[in-house]
Amino acid sequence: MNSQLQIAYKLIQLLHYCVFLSGGKLPVTWYPQEYLKNLAMTNMAMRPSKVGYPGRTYRFYKGPVVYPFGHGLTYTHFVHELSSAPTVVSVPVHGHRHGNNTNISNKAIRVTHARCGKLSIALHVDVKNVGSRDGTHTLLVFSAPPNGGNHWVPQKQLVAFEKVHVPAKSKQRVRVNIHVCKLLSVVDKSGIRRIPMGEHSLHIGDVKHSVSLQAEALGIIKS
């Protein structure tokens, strides 16, 4: 066997036995065939309607799927463990003008009224490779805001992701920063971006963690 064939054979062996062991995740949702029956191609709305329109993307569609957004395959097995995360985060608010409604039912603050700066939530997640092979894992962090059943609020949304290589039978600690104003805010029906106050549920694989956002008023601006 000549040298080129030997090299090709070894490369095939490497791929076959998954020495590099990369993993992949879906960047889209795979919908069932029935989904298309209720999806008018002239309607580009993201949110579902009461007349049978199912909505689009994992953020708003709540029906059955073939494979969900973020579904992936790997040649080993990873588990997550939350090492540290806050349970309460204060959101400083510049104040509000008399007679100016800054929230929806006193439960959401306009992003423009918050002192955002570097306001973020720091998570430390241990990614454990409990399989027998080395592997690379993409850590996905989703957030489910309060009132997830509200028509204008997404049921969940991707707020962070990190890729980490973990040798077999070991773990790696990953730090994830979630900017509160940019990533935990939602857009209401008037097109105004707001930060919902209350319990936000963070999903990391099978791990769930609740973080309570609480407004911290800094005063009243006279109109």
Topology:
Blueprint: H1 3-16, E1 24-25, H2 57-60, E2 72-73, E3 78-84, E4 88-93, E5 96-97, E6 108-110, E7 120-129, E8 135-144, E9 157-166, E10 170-179, H3 180-183, E11 186-187, E12 193-196, E13 198-204, E14 207-217, E15 220-221
Parallel strand pairs: 4-14, 5-15
Antiparallel strand pairs: 1-2, 3-7, 6-12, 7-10, 8-9, 8-13, 11-12, 13-14
Strand order of the largest sheet: 4-14-13-8-9
What is the radius of gyration? Answer: 22 Å
Q: Regarding quaternary structure, how should these chains be classified? A: single chain
Sheet with most strands = 5 strands, mixed
CATH topology of the domain at 76-221: Immunoglobulin-like
Structural class: mainly beta
Rounded mean pLDDT score = 85
What is the CATH architecture assignment of the domain at 76-221? Sandwich
Low-pLDDT segments: 97-105
The helix-strand sequence is HEHEEEEEEEEEHEEEEE
3D shape: flat
Could you please describe the fold and organization of this structure?
About 10% of the residues lie in helices and about 40% in strands. By secondary structure, the chain is mainly β. The chain has a domain at about 75-220: Immunoglobulin-like (Sandwich), CATH 2.60.40.10. The strands form five sheets. It has a five-stranded mixed beta sheet with strand order 4-14-13-8-9, with no helix packed on it. It has a three-stranded antiparallel beta sheet with strand order 3-7-10. A three-stranded antiparallel beta sheet has the order 6-12-11. The longest helix is centred in the N-terminal third of the chain and has 14 residues, at about 5-15. The radius of gyration is 22 Å and the shape is flat. Residues about 95-105 have low confidence and may be disordered.
